[in-house]
Amino acid sequence: MVDAEELKALIRKKLEEGADAFLCLVDEEGSLVPALVTGADSPDLERIRVGGVRYPLAKILVELLREYPGRRFAVLARGCDERALVELAKLEQVDPDRVELVGLACTEEEARACGCPKPYPTRVDLGERAEPAPEREVIEEAEFLPDPERLRFWEEHFSRCIKCYGCRNVCPMCFCEDCALENPQLVEPGVVPPEFPSFHLIRALDMAGRCVDCGLCDEACPADIPLRSIYRRMQEVMEERFGYRPGEDPERRNPLSELGTEAEIKKIMGSGLEI
Amino acid sequence: MTEEKKEGRAEAGGEDDVRILAFLCNWCSYAGADLAGVSRLQYPPNVLDVRVMCTGTISPYFVVKAFQEGMDGVLIAGCHIGDCHYLKGNYMTAKRFQVLREALKFMGLEEGRLRLEWVSAAEGEKYAEVVRSFTEQVKALGPSPLRRKRARAVKGEKGAA
Fold first, then answer.
1. B11-37: pLDDT as tens digits
2. Are residues A61 and A73 in contact, defined by beta-carbon separation less than 8 angstroms?
3. What is the C-alpha separation between B107 and B133, in angstroms, rounded?
4. Which residues pair with A75 in a beta bridge?
5. Which of B64, B81, B92 is facing A202, going by the closest CB pair?
6. B76 DSSP β-pair partners
7. Residues A207, A231: contact at Cβ < 8 Å?
8. Which helix (H) or strand (E) holds A182?
9. Residue A100's beta-bridge partner residues?
10. Which residue in the set A145, A204, A265 is minimally distant from B103, CB to CB?
C-alpha cells in the first residue's frame, strides 16, 4: 500500500518545480472526490488519498487546460489515465507541455478487478508494477454464438439501456461538442431503450482506435451492459488490421484519422485489393 | 412509366424481396452503373442507389442507419485504389470498412450483408455482375433480422394508434 505521505512530498515537489496545480483525489466526508491542490500549504493536502475509486481525471484535465490557458498542471495518473492523456494529446485536446504526470501503479487486486491490460504508467513514481490481467470473457461468450443468436445476446443486454448517456459522459475519450448520439437523425429522441443496435454500435465505431480500455464505462453503466467488451473487441480489430494500440505511442496517430499511404492500404486489404 | 412496369418494380422491392442500398461514388461507380444501364445489361432491381461524391464521405453511421431502417444489404462501390478523384478518399473507405464489418459481425449481423467493391466508370459489366452476385448472396441470407424486428415494431405502433 502506498503511503499518502509519499504522495504529499511528490505534490509539494511538483508545485515547487513549476506546476500551478496538482489534480488528485481527496477524502470528502468519507468518499473520494477529485480536487485541485494549488499550494504547498493547501488544507486539501491533509485529506489526500492514494488508490481507491477512479475518476476520469484525463477528462477533468481537458477542461482545466481549456479553462486556464497558460497554466501548468500535474496529475496523479494511473496506467489508464496516462493512456487517455497520450491519446487526447494526439487529438489536440491536451497540451502535453503543460501536463506533468506522477505515475501511480495499481495494486494486484485493482488490476485483477479491472481486467486491466496495463495497470501501470510508463514511469512509476508510486506503488509497484502489478501483472496485467486482461480478460476476454464476454467477447468469447459472444463470439461463441452463431450470428442470429449473437444478435439476440446483444439485444438482451441493450434492452436494459436507460439511455442515461453515462458511458459517454464518463468516457475520457469523448469530447465532441456535437455528439452523434444526440443527433435526432441517427438516434430517435425520447425512445427508451434506444434503437437496437444503432445507439451502441455508433459508440463502438467511434471508439475504434480511440478507446484506452480504462473500463470506466462498465463501472458507470447502471444497467450492467458489458460495453467495455464491445470497445475492446474494436481495439482487437485495430490491432489485427492496423497494428495500432491507442494510448501507447505518442508519435503514431490513429490510422482511422489519417489517409495513409497506398502501400499501407494494400497491406490492409490483402493481395489484389479483393475483399 | 407504364402500369405494368410500376407493378414489376413494387414486387421486386416488396415485402418478401430483399432490399439493398448501394452507395456509389459519383466519379467511378455511378458512371459504371450508368454504363451498365445504357449497355442494357440485366441485373436485379433490388438495389436502391445513393450517389455520393466520394466513398470517403460515407460515414459508418450511414451504413448503421441503413441496416437500422430495414435494409437487407449495403453495397459500397467506389473508384479503384489509386484512381480516386480526390486522390486518397477511398483509402478512408478501405480502412473504415474493415472496422465496420467487424463491428457488425460482432453485433451478430451476417457478414455477407455488407460489401465493398471497386468499380470504375468503364466497368459496366462488373457493376452488373457485382449487383447480381450480391443480390444472390443477400437473398440466400434472407431478410435482415433487424428489418423483421422493425416491421413488428411498426405494426405494434399502428395497432396502438
1. 555 566 899 999 999 999 999 999 999
2. yes
3. 24
4. A23, A101
5. B64
6. B23, B116
7. yes
8. none
9. A74
10. A204
Hey, what's the cell of B137?
Answer: 448472396
The 10 Å CB-count burial string (b at 16+, else e) for A142-160 is beeeebeebbebbbebbee
Task: Please indicate, yes or no, if residue B36 is contained in any of the structural domains.
Answer: yes
Q: How far apart are CA A195 and CA A216, in angstroms?
A: 23
- pLDDT tens digits, one per residue of A23-58: 999 998 889 999 999 988 888 888 998 878 899 999
Provide the CA A264 distance to its chain's centre, in angstroms. 28
Residue type, A169: N
Residues of chain A neighbouring B57 (CB-CB closer than 8 A): none
Quote the minimal CA–CA distance from A191 to chain B in Å: 12
- Cis check: omega of the bond before A119, within 30 degrees of 0: no
**Residue B128 belongs to domain with CATH number:** 3.40.50
Substitution target in A141, A259, A264, A268 with the highest count of B β-carbons within 10 Å is A259
Which of B118, B115, B17 has its CA nearest to residue B63?
B115
Kindly report the backbone phi and psi dihedral angles of residue A253, in degrees, each rounded to the nearest multiple of 5, phi listed first: -90, 160
Tens digits of per-residue pLDDT, A189-242? Answer: 998 899 989 999 999 999 999 999 999 999 999 999 999 999 999 999 999 999
- Taking 60 as the threshold, does the pLDDT of residue B159 lie above it? no
The beta-carbon neighbor of B88 closest among A152, A154, A259 is A259
Output phi, psi for A181, to 5 deg.
-75, -10
Maximum distance among all Cα pairs of chain B, rounded to whole angstroms:
54
Count of domains for chain B: 1
Q: Which structural domain range is residue B75 located in?
A: 18-160
ipTM for the predicted complex:
0.89
Residue B53 lies in a domain: yes
Q: Which three cell numbers stand for residue A220?
A: 458507470
User: CB distance A234–B107 less than 8 Å?
Assistant: no
Shortest CA distance to B78 belongs to which of B89, B65, B69, B67? B89
CA A263/CA A268 separation, integer angstroms: 9
Q: Give the gyration radius of chain A's Cα atoms.
A: 20
The 3-class SS string of B57-114 reads HCCHHHHHHHHHCCCCEEEEEECCCCCCCCCCHHHHHHHHHHHHHHHHHHHCCCHHHE
Q: CA-to-CA distance for B33 and B25, rounded, in angstroms?
A: 10
Give me the half-sphere count of Cα atoms (radius 13 Å) on the Cβ side of residue A269: 24
A262 chain-B contacts, CB cut-off 8 A = 81-82, 91
